[in-house]
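Hey,

The postdoc asked me to send both predictions to you directly instead of through the lab channel. I've kept everything plain text so nothing gets mangled by the mail client. Protein one:
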Amino acid sequence: MSKTSMRSLLFGASVLIGALVSSGCGSNSPTAPTAPEVVTTTETFSGSININGAATHSFFTTVTGTVTATLTGLDPAETATIGLSLGTWNGISCNIIIASDKAVLTQVVTGTVSTTAGSLCVRVYDTGSLIGPTNYEVQVVHP
């Protein structure tokens, strides 16, 4: 075998070995883990509040994430304006964190849970505008 043939053979073999090695290794780049999908829970609370009255409903969350409270029912809807708030629940009272004092039907209050687990609350209340008993329904979506 001549020197040129030998060089061609060695070159071809090294290219073939290089191609096999690189195709078997794949990417050496680390891949970031994907965050698990947050499963949300929807809870519906309803009742009636009187003039100067209020109602508090507690719920529990186990992970961080967004919490929304939506006023989905209000009767009489055409005249009622109430307070709608989210807060933390200590077993006795609702410590208001975010509130809308002029909530009307479909009003949304949004907050963020920054601890991994905890008792939260949604509160509806008269802000001085009710003229009689008012029925409400609030839908809370939380992680």
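Protein two:
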Amino acid sequence: TQKINTWNKYHGFLLLQSMFLVIAFQSVLPLIAVVIPSFLFYIIQHWTELKAFRPFAGYANWVTAFRLDIVILLAIFYPSLSLLQIGMLAILIICLDWVDGQLARRFDMSSDFGEYLDMETDSLFVAVICSILYLNGMVGWWLMLIGFLRYIYAIAVFLLGWQNRKAKSTKHATFIAGIFFVAIICPFFLPVLYYLPIVIVGSLLLLFSFAYSFYSLWEAK
């Protein structure tokens, strides 16, 4: 819808700016300071639609909102957590991603609101985990570009005026996203000798996925 597209545009701009703030201040808090009001605005904007669900907002969106809360809390409190605890919370967030999709299909509660909330929660999760890995000195600054690639892509599409074009739907995108999720969790459980090649391969695959999507938009003239 137009409301979602407009929010997505401004949300992307804000999140991309927050990437530079995270690097400049060496803290993930600027990202959270931007994210919380942006997501609150998105929810309030769709309040009337959410009231149409029974129960309010629907079970799937409850799970997605809970997952979003965990991502935000992880970003705020990660300095006081061990690497193992961060990794376990990351696994929980990914598992809940599967749960909300199952609930949406089980109770036939799929919606544009829920789809974008789920997608942007995934994007925030990736941005937060990549920021933590960078700030902890576990992976180089280049991972920040990968972690915020979703927002770079969204802004590029907007600036080129391609927001009304449809990228080709492919099965590999979901598969690659799953591989990347696993790749960025590995550093919390494995020594650098093992996790760094995994993160690099996962990042290259994600770059390929976004490049392919970008190319398909370019073709859709």
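Summary for protein two, as requested: The mean pLDDT is 92.

Thanks,
C.
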